[in-house]
Design brief:
This protein is α/β, with parallel strands linked by helices and 287 residues long. Helices cover 33% and strands 30% of the residues. The strands form 3 sheets. A 7-stranded mixed sheet has the order 7-6-5-8-9-10-11. A 4-stranded antiparallel sheet has the order 2-3-1-4. The protein has a two-stranded antiparallel ribbon with strand order 12-13. Helix 3 crosses helix 8 and helix 7 packs across helix 8.
Length: 287
């Protein structure tokens, strides 16, 4: 069975030896290993993928992520590690949308092609516009309208859906509502957002039209974790495409949507493959 170990801890000698000795000692075969030494913060980040054919770690003769975590705890204490073992089961996604369908369409294509690295469980929206797209893919579509008066109830409904469908990751695929601070805290590390990379410039409506008026030469998108600080969470991925004076507002919108779809799908896949580790307000991404 495939597993992935991710960890971070203060940098010191012997960390990699301790990890590999633990795995080899339990008959595990390491298939991919990456690490990063952050000299500025004095920290080490590590991702190791490995397979276990069985063994006597678990009560039923099968190795599980929980079994490995219990066994590894002593090693982690010695090095002050924050760690997680994950098995090969794909994450379950709840995708939130409003009226723009380009990011949802891209995620659906990659999901059906088997290249997303996760399973989409359902689509939630504050509008009905994208119901046909979701239902054509065979997915449940849940309409949760949001107004100033119903915002708290709508967010409670979202949390109920997360629990009901055993959701691992919430993906805001151009969901045009600001989540409350309380909801952001509850979804910490489990929600990814996408937006154009002009921020903090060109805020508000029609950012690409504003960018056209200023004659921008680059169009981009940023995928990041959701935090109470609006659009300022740890960045996972950014896509940048060069443009010139021949691009009108419609052309910039088209390029921008391509960038948004690419950045979001990469961020989702890397998160679900346990390739993204938080490092303060930034991230380490093992591609």
């Amino acid at each position: 069975m495939p597993f992935t170990l991710t960890l971070n801890c203060p940098e010191r000698s012997g960390i990699v030896h301790a990890v590999t000795s633990f795995l080899v000692g339990r008959g595990c075969d390491i298939v991919e290993h990456q690490q990063f030494d952050d000299a500025v913060r004095g920290s080490l980040f590590l991702r190791t993928s490995f397979s276990c054919d069985g063994g006597d770690v678990g009560e039923r003769g099968e190795t599980t992520a929980d079994d490995l975590s219990r066994e590894f705890a002593a090693v982690a204490r010695d090095f002050g590690m924050e760690f997680q073992f994950s098995d090969g089961r794909p994450d379950r996604l709840l995708v939130m949308v409003s009226k723009f369908g380009h990011c949802l369409n891209d995620l659906l294509f990659r999901w059906r092609a088997g290249s997303l690295g996760a399973d989409i469980a359902l689509v939630v929206s504050n509008h009905e516009d994208l119901r046909p797209m979701a239902e054509a893919a065979g997915l449940p579509f849940v309409h949760v309208p949001v107004t100033a008066e119903t915002k708290q109830d709508a967010e409670q409904r979202l949390l109920e859906l997360v629990d009901e469908h055993h959701i691992d990751l919430v993906v805001l695929a151009r969901y045009m509502q600001v989540l409350s601070n309380a909801l952001c805290v509850k979804l910490e590390g489990r929600a990814i957002n996408i937006h154009h990379s002009f921020l903090p410039g060109f805020k508000g409506a029609k950012p690409y039209h504003q960018a056209y008026d200023r004659g921008v030469k680059y169009v981009g998108a940023t995928a990041h974790y959701v935090t109470p600080d609006l659009d300022e969470g740890p960045i996972i991925e950014q896509e940048v495409l060069r443009v010139d004076h021949t691009y009108g507002p419609r052309g910039l919108v088209t390029v921008g949507r391509d960038a948004e779809a690419l950045a979001l799908s990469r961020a989702v896949r890397w998160h679900c493959e346990r390739r993204v580790l938080l490092n303060g307000n930034s991230t380490v991404v093992f591609r």
